[in-house]
């Protein structure tokens, strides 16, 4: 019977069970796509990352939710790079590249006395107008249209994965959100498999610039991500496009997420301009939680 070791890391936190959990499989090339999907389903994380070989980058990485493969996942990348670095699999490398389905992404590692920080460049930001029914959108989140900030646009954004950014007036609204994810595809007619990411400029922490929650597409097999790297990158691009588009020096932003579900994650987002395009990088860390073995088609054993 074929077996796989899955490492559990929490990204965007230095305290176990406070960040966004991800599974990491270091020998991903040993498994078929169908087996990767089975492993992700049985491991039960919102995403499980599989490290593979690459002909065009230092390493390859594939991301699987319980229900489907994703092009890019920020928190699973953070978890994977942290695992590779702390297990000595990167040797003395502090800069390298990873091949994803969203492109080849540069990775940078900075080690301080207290933390290993990982910076990853994301894909060039894209935005598309939301043309749907705002009332139906609000209903799908369990809130009212009046809770949505009409002074800012509702738009689809992507730095590797599409999500709908919904600006919210007050922080208290986030605690009332009860998403009906099954309604998302009909509400999101332009991109039916998109997730929804409410955003607020009011925060729990004084050092944070934005607060968010992330509700997954029903096709993903998950309901909510605790702290999302790619969506935080979209939040940074949204800020630079619709809130402060006159910046000259790079914007250094802090995104907080997860407080409503007993998490407390932070993502550092840097946005700069490269000629006509925005460049987005996210920085975070991770922490080891546990590891366990899965026998494909059999039982799990925690270790």
Automatic annotation (TrEMBL):
An example Gene Ontology CC term for this record: cytoplasm
Keywords from UniProt, A to Z, are: Isomerase
What InterPro entries does the record tag this protein with?
A: Phenazine_PhzF-like
Task: Tell me the superkingdom of the source.
Answer: Bacteria
Protein's recorded name: PhzF family phenazine biosynthesis isomerase
Q: Which residues form the active site?
A: 47
Question: GO: which molecular function terms?
Answer: isomerase activity
Organism from which the protein derives: Radiobacillus deserti
The family annotation for this protein states:
Belongs to the PhzF family.
Lineage, uppermost ranks: Bacteria, Bacillati, Bacillota, Bacilli, Bacillales
């Amino acid at each position: 019977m074929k077996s796989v070791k899955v490492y559990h890391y929490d990204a965007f936190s230095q305290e176990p069970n406070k960040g966004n959990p991800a599974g990491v499989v270091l020998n991903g090339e040993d498994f078929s796509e169908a087996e990767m999907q089975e492993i992700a389903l049985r491991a039960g994380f919102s995403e499980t990352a599989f490290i593979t070989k690459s002909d065009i980058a230092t390493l390859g990485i594939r991301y699987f939710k319980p229900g489907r493969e994703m092009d890019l996942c920020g928190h699973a990348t953070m978890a994977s790079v942290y695992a590779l670095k702390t297990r000595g699999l990167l040797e003395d490398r502090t800069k390298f590249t990873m091949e994803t389905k969203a492109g080849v992404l540069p990775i940078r590692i900075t080690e301080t006395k207290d933390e290993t920080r990982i910076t990853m460049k994301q894909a060039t930001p894209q935005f598309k107008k939301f043309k749907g029914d705002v009332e139906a959108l609000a209903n799908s989140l369990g809130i009212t249209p009046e809770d949505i900030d009409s002074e800012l646009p509702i738009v689809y954004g992507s730095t590797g994965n599409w999500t709908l950014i919904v600006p919210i007036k007050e922080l208290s609204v986030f605690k009332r959100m009860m998403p009906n994810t099954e309604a998302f595809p009909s509400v999101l007619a332009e991109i039916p498999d998109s997730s929804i990411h409410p955003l607020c400029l009011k925060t729990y922490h004084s050092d944070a610039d934005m607060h968010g929650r992330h509700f997954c597409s029903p096709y993903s097999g998950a309901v909510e991500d605790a702290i999302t790297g790619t969506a935080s990158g979209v939040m940074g691009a949204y800020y630079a496009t619709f809130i402060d588009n006159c910046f000259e020096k790079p914007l250094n932003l802090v995104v907080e997420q997860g407080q409503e579900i007993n998490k407390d994650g932070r993502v550092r987002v840097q946005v700069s301009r490269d000629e006509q395009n925005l460049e987005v990088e996210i920085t975070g860390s991770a922490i080891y939680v546990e590891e366990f073995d899965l026998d494909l088609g059999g039982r799990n054993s925690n270790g």
